[in-house]
Design goal:
The chain is α/β, with parallel strands linked by helices and 357 residues long. The protein has 2 domains: 110 residues, Aspartate Aminotransferase, domain 1 (Alpha-Beta Complex); 216 residues, 3-Layer(aba) Sandwich (Aspartate Aminotransferase, domain 2), CATH 3.40.640. The protein contains 13 helices and 12 strands. The chain has a 7-stranded mixed sheet with strand order 2-8-7-6-5-3-4, with helices on both faces. The protein has a 3-stranded antiparallel sheet with strand order 9-12-11, covered by helices on one side. Helix 4 packs across helix 9.
């Protein structure tokens, strides 16, 4: 039999794969919204567990029980996943089907659209570039085909947040036929936490993560909270061992150490958020209101240049290829006095140079 001249044609376009930011040694990395640098002592949880930690398949039961205790939930209402990304994928696979629809804000975290498309569902993207949550347009898009509704609040990449009233109106519009996914990945930095209210509602699942405020992005530990039937469906919609045993051990140790360090980091970031907004205003820029650990601002045609000039000063920030975000620069707040001072000095130098040109 002669081999074919070309491979099979996939449903997925290879070029659409997520483009991971490059890591440059020595560069101040403010382009991926990672949280505080954790105490290196949390790594001691791995050798303490012994070699069976590596030999045995991982068991997230202890971590799910620990997270459940934090929210007053039994373990069957908690599911640990490989980041919130995997939880999004599982929710879409469990509740979407060809011909159904996901409703989401736009722009927002693009894993929602990716996961919905892979489930062969349609996507209704409701513009939310800035300002208040577009409640009227959002609820108007919910129809009989809607099976999943993504409320990403605070929102990435814009930093905006929906109110409790917004959330409750969306849940009411969803009715019994649609699952509302409340993406709370950045909620530790926000003014309002909707988790407690969401857990009273059977058609809502809350996604949270240890990747941001808890500083464990490298461990890929997210978790979902919700009705036991919803959590059970998400648990069934994927592989049984998606989070590694070392990641689970480190996550348990980080949680065991308590909230004090995390809260101190959040307070520092919230102050930096205010300071950076004032500095950007002083430079003649318009920062968007943010309830996350990042600030975005519009540089127009200079966005790529600002990113390049900051990179020349060993600072990585984020820009976006989408036409509607082409002029946007996003900067993760470092949560460190020294790093923040470095960032501010670099911004002043870059914009001073641009004014001379």
């Amino acid at each position: 039999m002669k081999p074919t001249s070309s491979p099979p044609v996939p449903r997925v376009v290879p070029s659409s794969a997520y483009a991971r930011p490059k890591i440059v040694p020595g560069r101040l990395k403010l382009d991926s919204n990672e949280g505080a640098r954790p105490d290196g002592a949390v790594l001691e949880a791995v050798p303490r567990a012994g070699p069976d930690l590596l030999r045995r398949y991982p068991d997230a039961a202890a971590l799910e029980a620990t997270l459940g205790e934090r929210f007053g939930l039994p373990p069957e209402r908690v599911f640990v996943s490989a980041g919130a990304d995997e939880a999004i994928d599982r929710a879409c696979r469990a509740f979407l089907e060809p011909g159904s629809r996901l409703v989401m804000p736009d722009p927002s975290f693009d894993m929602f659209e990716r996961s919905a498309r892979l489930a062969c569902a349609d996507v209704a993207a409701i513009p939310w570039p800035d300002g208040p949550f577009p409640l009227e347009r959002f609820t108007a898009a919910i129809d009989e085909r809607t099976r999943v509704i993504a409320m990403v609040t605070p929102n990435n990449p814009t930093g905006g947040a929906a109110t409790r009233t917004d959330f409750e109106c969306v849940v009411e519009a969803a009715g019994r036929s649609a699952l509302v996914v409340l993406d709370h990945a950045y909620v530790e930095y926000a003014d309002e936490d909707l988790t407690a209210r969401a857990l009273e509602l059977p058609n809502v699942v809350v996604l949270r993560t240890l990747s941001k405020a808890w500083g464990l992005a490298g461990c890929r530990v997210g978790y979902s909270l919700g009705h036991c039937d919803v959590i059970g469906a998400m648990r069934a919609a994927g592989q049984p061992y998606s989070v590694s045993a070392p990641s689970i051990a480190i996550a348990l140790e980080q949680l065991r150490r308590g909230d004090a360090v995390m809260r101190a980091h959040v307070q520092r970031v919230r102050r930096e958020r205010e300071w950076l907004a004032e500095i950007l205003l002083g430079l003649g820029l318009k920062p968007r209101a943010s309830q996350t650990n990042f600030v975005t601002f519009d540089c127009g045609s200079r966005a790529a240049t600002v990113k390049e000039r900051l990179a020349e000063r060993d600072i990585a920030v984020r820009t976006f290829p989408r036409p509607d975000l082409a002029g946007i620069v996003r900067i993760t707040l470092p949560g460190s006095e020294a790093d923040f001072d470095t960032l501010v000095a670099a911004l002043h130098a870059v914009f001073a140079d641009l004014e001379k040109e």
